[in-house]
């Protein structure tokens, strides 16, 4: 390894390389991403970095059981408005 990748390059490469067939994102814990990040960036904090990348619109985070899913913005699933769905199922409207 001559020159280290930037945080963004590393995260994007991880999402593409570590995802299982049929899936568009990776689980930060189960995929090994967090451990790989800490090794590559010598103790760097993957939570802070992925949060910043998400705030900057570079990646999309989705909280899930046991961690977070990481997606490329162009591949992230659309998150349904749960409150709207719940009201609809209840036969109620918020408008």
Q: Just name the CATH architecture.
A: Orthogonal Bundle
Tell me about the largest β-sheet.
Answer: 3 strands, antiparallel
Rg, alpha carbons: 16 Å
String of helices and strands:
HEHHEEH
Q: Tell how many strands the DSSP assignment holds.
A: 3
Might you state the CATH topology name?
A: Arc Repressor Mutant, subunit A
Taken together, the total number of domains comes to 1
The coarse overall form would be elongated
Terminus-to-terminus distance: 57 Å
Instruction: Please report the first level of CATH classification, the CATH class.
Output: Mainly Alpha
Q: How many helices?
A: 4
* Mean pLDDT, all residues: 91
Structural class: alpha+beta
Please give the share of residues in helix. 40-55%
Strand order of the largest sheet: 1-3-2
What is the topological layout?
Layout: H1 7-18, E1 26-27, H2 33-40, H3 46-55, E2 60-64, E3 67-71, H4 82-89
Antiparallel strand pairs: 1-3, 2-3
Task: List its salient traits.
alpha+beta, 4 helices, Arc Repressor Mutant, subunit A, single chain, 95 residues
What does this structure look like?
The protein is α+β, with helices and mostly antiparallel strands and about 100 residues long. The protein has one domain: Orthogonal Bundle (Arc Repressor Mutant, subunit A), CATH 1.10.10. It is built from four helices and three strands; from the N terminus they run αβααββα. A three-stranded antiparallel beta sheet has the order 1-3-2. A hairpin with a 2-residue loop joins strand 2 and strand 3. The radius of gyration is 16 Å and the shape is elongated. It starts with 6 loop residues before the first helix and ends in a 6-residue tail after the last helix.
């Amino acid at each position: 390894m001559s020159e280290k990748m930037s945080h963004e390059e590393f995260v994007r490469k991880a999402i593409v390389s570590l995802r299982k067939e049929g899936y568009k994102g990776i689980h930060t814990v189960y995929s090994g991403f967090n451990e790989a990040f800490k090794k590559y960036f010598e103790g760097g904090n993957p939570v802070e970095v992925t949060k910043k990348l998400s705030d900057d619109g570079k990646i999309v985070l989705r909280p899930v059981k046991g961690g977070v899913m990481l997606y490329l913005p162009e591949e992230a699933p659309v998150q349904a408005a749960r409150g709207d769905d719940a009201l609809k199922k209840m036969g109620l409207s918020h408008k």
